[in-house]
Specification:
Length: 256
Amino acid sequence: MNYKWLKIISFFITSFMLTQPLSATLLETKIAQANNYYTAARYDSAMIQYQSVVDAGYESSGLYYNLGNTYFKLKNIPSAILYYEKAKKLNPTDEDILNNIAVANGMIVDKIDQLPRFFFKNWWDNIYNLFNADSWAWISVFSFIMTLTASFLYFTSSILWLKKSGFFLGLVMLLTTIIGFGLASQRYFYTKQATEAIIFAPTITVKSSPGNSSVDLFVLHEGTKVVLMDEVIGWHKIKIANGSVGWLPNDSYEGI
């Protein structure tokens, strides 16, 4: 056996195992440091520490919320809204996040009325936002186990009322499993894809087509939230809350 290669492999495995806890510890240290800076009203330093953790690839609703608060203290409202919205994607029912979004939105220029929504859409969104992706996944797993249990009861029991109970319980749990799995998948992909964005240009003119020479439609200001639609090189089709649609250059916004 080639012991030289064994030593090399062992070295890399050991190095990898040792760097993982140090990496996690470093992130925790940076977050704790940022919290201390924030408490001491050293918001520039807090922002640098929080941002370095985000740039390292770590994400959580609490981290985004704290970074949003820090930018708000620094009077950088577009960045505050961006990170509040990122926090909302991961924790859509948190009252503090929702309240801070409302406060920050009250400080931007654009006041856009939202189109009326069908009651069914509101009802579905309320269900969709009850839990995050992980919680919906666990609900789906639990429901699937209950479906198997109910099926076993239906096929093995000789008592009529137990067979009926197993049959109807199995149907309900199967439906819950399908819905839970669908919502978990949808929420997961929603959190991983930037389908919305915040305008960062102080003032930007929305165009009728992707190109500076196209017709001007309307003007947006920094901090406004838009929905991202079609994309061509350097441009993105967007929609705002009142239903108006147009095109913006990619460097004028940051994806949520």
